[in-house]
Amino acid sequence: MPTAPALSFLDRSRTRTGQDDADALRATLGRARRAEDLGADGFWVAEHHAVPGVVGSAPTVLLAAVAAATTRVRVGTAGVMLPNHRPFVVAEQVATLAALHPGRVEVGVGRSLGFTAPVRRALGAHASADADERLAELLDWLHGRGPVTLRPLVPAPPVWLLATGEGLRTAARLGLPVVVGGRLLRDPEPLRRYRDEHPGGRVSLLVDVVVAEDESAARRELLPQAVALARARSRGAFGPLPTPAAAAAADLTDRERVDVDRYLADAVAGSAGQVRRRLQDLLDRTGADELLLAATPHARDVEAANDARLAELVADLRTAG
User: Fold this and answer.
1) Does 266 fall in a domain?
2) What is the mean pLDDT of residues 103-130?
């Protein structure tokens, strides 16, 4: 296990009931400044399109604002979905950021299409687009192997792949670091194969984590995100984050309750001691180099307190390591 896992936060720019979209983006910037003050190593933003509950639709634009609002913390995307974009345009945007903030920019890329058919049409995205080809093209542009010279001309920033089992094989073949979560945290065997094929490959674990007085209180703060995700999968509608009370009273189908339970099982929730043990176990089983921690409590003050507790816990893990 790495003796000093890096700590990064993922912010999804979630809207809350009673708040508008601009509030969510301003909160992302505030959280980035707070993460830097807490000593975090990185701060990442996500990509979603035409979703009422998530307003981070332009990750490289938002990343520019985050980088300008901070001075030290690494900034990254988790991630830019390549089927939705021309690789050359992504490379230009990333290179521009790297020129303005040298040594601080990382780009996480994914292979998913837009959320719905109308969104895919609006983006000009096509299911036939080969994600691996687009990834290889992006790397060629960033490393100066394209048919024209990318400008600005800067050293290529790190490219991470948001990976599933198939993505891990692609990352190993291309020698890329990976961001993993979900079922890969339950079954680390694909990660072992990735490391066999790419010795020294770096791994970042994406985990939703809430620290509270006890497990019940922590799960209560995770429930709004769990309910929102379950409804999105079954109803195709991802709305603003409900309050914990509204989430607890939500009328869910049996399938949605299964999805809620699955989300809560994959997340880490509990007292400081419980969370520390869970994170240590994940690091032991996966050998990860970085913890990319995400959680979206409804109340902003709860989110701020949670970030502070997580920074303290990871500092303790580093000391113990």
Assistant:
1) no
2) 81
